[in-house]
Amino acid sequence: MFTREKLENNQVWLYVIVLAIAAGFGLLTSDFAGRLDGSISIIIAILMYSMFSQIPFVAFKEAFGNRRFIFAILTVNYIAVPIVVWFLSNLLPDHPPVLLGVYLVLLTPCIDYVIVFTALGRGNEKIILFSTPLLFISQMLLLPLYLWLFMGEKAADIVEPGPFLEAFIGLIVIPLIIAIGIQLVARKAPIGNRIIDLSAWLPVPFMALTLFVVVASQIGKLSAYSGQIIKVIPIYIAFMIIMPLISRFIAKWFALDTGASRSLVFSGSTRNSLVVLPLALALPDTISTLVAAVIVTQTIIELAFELVYIRLVPNLLVREKS
User: Fold this and answer.
1) Whether the Cβ atoms of residue 271 and residue 85 lie closer than 8 Å to each other
2) Exposure string (b/e) for 257-276, b if CB count within 10 Å is 16 or more?
C-alpha cells in the first residue's frame, strides 16, 4: 500500500531522479524550459504553504519544553554557522551576487526536510519538529542583520526593497498566515484537521516539482556563470564536512542525549535553500539567475551529503551510548 510515510522515506531518491530529469530536459529543450520560470512563484507559494501547514505554530510553547536543546540549536545555527560561513566566504572572490547567494542559503537553517533526514538518521525528529517555528521566525529576523554584517552597503546595493518585500510577503508571509489560520481552525473544527491531513501529502511532490522547474528553467542559462558556480562548490563541501563535527562538539557541551545530539547535527548541517529561493528570484534580473543558481547548487550538494549523513551520523559520529 502506498502511504505518505513511504513517500517521505523515499523522497531523497525522488529528488535525485527529478534533478537528473530536470537537467536533461532543460539542456535538451532550453527555449521551452526557460519559459517555465514564470510558474516558479506559484509553485513555491504552494510548497511554502504545504510545509508551513505541518509546522506546529499553534503549539509554539512546546518548542521550549527542552530548553537545553533550544539553547544548543540556537548556538549551532546562529553562532557557530555564521562564524564558519564567514571564514569560508573569505575564500571566495569578492563578487557580491555570489556572496549573497552563499549567505542566503548557508545562514538559514532548514525547517522542512531536515525532519525526515533526522528520522532516517535515527535522531529525535519530534524535538526538531517543535523547534521549527522558533527557527523560522529567528532566521527571518536575523538574516537581514547577518547580510548587513557580512556585506554592508553591498547588500543594500543589490537588494531592491520593493520586489524583495513583495516576494517575502507573497511567497512566505501569506502562505504562513493561511497555514496558521487552518491550524487554528483545526483546534475547533474537524474540517481544519482534514485540510491539514491533505496538505501533508503536498510537501514532497511540490518540492520535487519546485526542483524540476527551477533546474529545468535555469540550467540552460548557467553557461555564462559556470566559473562562479564552480568556485562555490568547495565551499559547500567544506561546510557539509565541518558543521557535523562542530555540531557534535556543541551537543557534548550541552550534554544532550543521543537522539537530541543527532538532531543537532542534522539541523546544523541542513540549510533552508527552498525557502530563501523566492528571495533570490526577486532580485534584479541581471543577477537573480546567478544567485538562484548558487542556491540550487547548494541543494544538490546537500542532498548527496544527506545520503551519507543518515548512515554516518548514527553509526559513527553519534553512536548509541553503551
Assistant:
1) no
2) bbbbbbbbbbbbbbbbbbbb
Q: Cα–Cα distance between 197 and 184 in angstroms, integer?
A: 14
Q: Which three cell numbers stand for residue 201?
A: 501529502
Does residue 246 belong to any structural domain of this protein? yes
Question: Read out DSSP for 210-227?
Answer: HHHHHHHHHGGGGGGGHH
How does residue 89 score in pLDDT terms, banded at 50, 70 and 90? very high
Q: Which residues does residue 109 pair with via DSSP β-bridges, in sequence order? A: 271
Q: What does the alpha-carbon distance between residue 243 and residue 223 come to, in Å, rounded to a whole number?
A: 31
Instruction: List C-alpha distances in Å: 169 to 45, 55, 162, 173.
Output: 10, 19, 11, 5
**22/53 Cα distance (integer angstroms):** 27
Tell me the three state secondary structure of residue 2.
coil
For 98-139, write each residue's pLDDT tens digit.
999 999 999 999 987 788 889 889 999 888 888 887 888 888
Does some domain include residue 140? Answer: yes
Whole-structure pTM value? 0.87
Q: What is the pLDDT of residues 280-320, one digit of tens each?
A: 878 887 888 889 889 988 988 998 899 899 999 999 999 98
Q: Return the closest-CA partner of residue 239 out of 82, 101, 132, 119.
A: 82
Q: Which domain holds residue 111?
A: 4-317
Buried b (16+ CB within 10 A) or exposed e, 175-199: bbebbbebbeebeeeeebeebbeeb
The CATH number linked to 152 is 1.20.1530.20
Cα separation of 138 and 277, whole Å?
Answer: 18
| Residues 234, 51: Cα–Cα separation, whole Å | 30
Q: Grid coordinates 537545553 are at which residue?
A: 68
Identity at 139, one-letter amino acid code: Q
Is 218 part of any domain?
yes
Domain count, the chain: 1
- Element at 23 (helix H, strand E): helix 11-28
What one-letter code names the amino acid at 169? I
Q: Is residue 322 part of a domain?
A: no
